[in-house]
Amino acid sequence: SLFINPQQKCTVKTIVIASNIQSFCCLFELTEKHLVLLRDGRTLIGFLRSIDQFANLVLQQTVERIHVGKRYGDIPRGIFIVRGENVVLLGEIDLEKESDTSLQQVCIEDILEEQRLQQQSRQEAEKTKHLALKERGLVMPRSDIMDEYGVQHQY
Amino acid sequence: MCISVLQLFYSFFKSLVGKDVVVELKNDLSICGTLHSVDQYLNIKLTDISVTDPEKYPHMLSVKNCFIRGSVVRYVQLPADEVDTQLLQDAARKEALQQKQ
């Protein structure tokens, strides 16, 4: 993996990583923020400092972003090291597009409360559905836990 | 044992670089984009992406290019006229026979 020292002024604009057999398909700009989707459903946003062919990541000034409807809240997390197997997707955030979105930022307490309410209503709906299906003889796996591939579906 | 089959699909995807594809992930997210590159792990890099399903996934709004880990891909939807299915079938059959030996 290629590690960039954050103390140095980052004049490197792009990194191309080649493994010893074939080249790894990652060509990235380092000047912009990146968005990471994790298998447990979390969204992290930060400056990408390192990546390898397994998608192990080092993120700096990371923020965990929680989305509820059209609103979101950010929790500052500092430096994150993510093991590649937990990564679903890594995206480059286009700063222009980010300022265009209709999303509204709220404070952490508010978004956590909204998330709690959302999860509560989801669980209740899930329970009713589960019960209705059970009465008809069908047992569905609970969707609030991860499926056999270890990927969280409800965000 | 699976290495040569992976090689086959790696070469197959390499031939599709530049085409528009839809990648469906195991978390049910579907992403439409241009295939920029692929590697031996079948990790996929897409450019100019858009989330095909209604924006249940608002966090993707500000992302234009993305890297998708191969292990989380469920399907890759390809344009029908870009793929020679006969050729692919024959190649896959050949690989399977080679592996049996």
UniProtKB/TrEMBL annotation, chain A:
Oligomeric and partner information: Interacts with SLBP; interaction with SLBP occurs when histone mRNA is being rapidly degraded during the S phase. LSm subunits form a heteromer with a donut shape.
Keyword RNA-binding: yes
Family: Belongs to the snRNP Sm proteins family.
Domain Sm positions: 21-96
An annotated Gene Ontology molecular function: mRNA binding
Protein name per UniProt: U6 snRNA-associated Sm-like protein LSm1
Top-level lineage group: Eukaryota
Classification via Pfam families: LSM (PF01423)
InterPro entries: Lsm1, LSM_dom_sf, PTHR15588, Sm, Sm_dom_euk/arc
Purpose of the protein: Probably involved with other LSm subunits in the general process of degradation of mRNAs.
Organism of provenance: Oncorhynchus tshawytscha (Chinook salmon)
GO biological process: deadenylation-dependent decapping of nuclear-transcribed mRNA; mRNA processing; RNA splicing
This protein's record includes keyword Phosphoprotein: yes
GO CC list: Lsm1-7-Pat1 complex; P-body; ribonucleoprotein complex
Automatic annotation (TrEMBL), chain B:
Quaternary assembly: Component of the precatalytic spliceosome (spliceosome B complex). Component of the U4/U6-U5 tri-snRNP complex, a building block of the precatalytic spliceosome (spliceosome B complex). The U4/U6-U5 tri-snRNP complex is composed of the U4, U6 and U5 snRNAs and at least PRPF3, PRPF4, PRPF6, PRPF8, PRPF31, SNRNP200, TXNL4A, SNRNP40, SNRPB, SNRPD1, SNRPD2, SNRPD3, SNRPE, SNRPF, SNRPG, DDX23, CD2BP2, PPIH, SNU13, EFTUD2, SART1 and USP39, plus LSM2, LSM3, LSM4, LSM5, LSM6, LSM7 and LSM8.
The keyword Glycoprotein appears for this protein: no
Gene responsible for this protein: smx5
Cellular compartment(s): Nucleus
Protein name per Swiss-Prot or TrEMBL: U6 snRNA-associated Sm-like protein LSm2
Protein purpose: Plays a role in pre-mRNA splicing as component of the U4/U6-U5 tri-snRNP complex that is involved in spliceosome assembly, and as component of the precatalytic spliceosome (spliceosome B complex). The heptameric LSM2-8 complex binds specifically to the 3'-terminal U-tract of U6 snRNA. Binds specifically to the 3'-terminal U-tract of U6 snRNA.
Keywords: mRNA processing, mRNA splicing, Nucleus, Ribonucleoprotein, RNA-binding, Spliceosome
Any Gene Ontology CC annotation: catalytic step 2 spliceosome
InterPro entries tied to this protein: LSM_dom_sf, Sm, Sm_dom_euk/arc, U6_snRNA_Lsm2
SMART domains named among the record's database cross-references: Sm
UniProt record similarity statement: Belongs to the snRNP Sm proteins family.
Chain ranges of the Sm domain: 8-82
Biological source species: Oncorhynchus tshawytscha
Keyword Iron in annotation: no
Annotated GO biological process: mRNA splicing, via spliceosome
PANTHER family given in the database record: SNRNP CORE PROTEIN FAMILY MEMBER, U6 SNRNA-ASSOCIATED SM-LIKE PROTEIN LSM2
GO terms, molecular function: RNA binding
CDD domains recorded: LSm2 (cd01725)
Family annotation (Pfam families): LSM
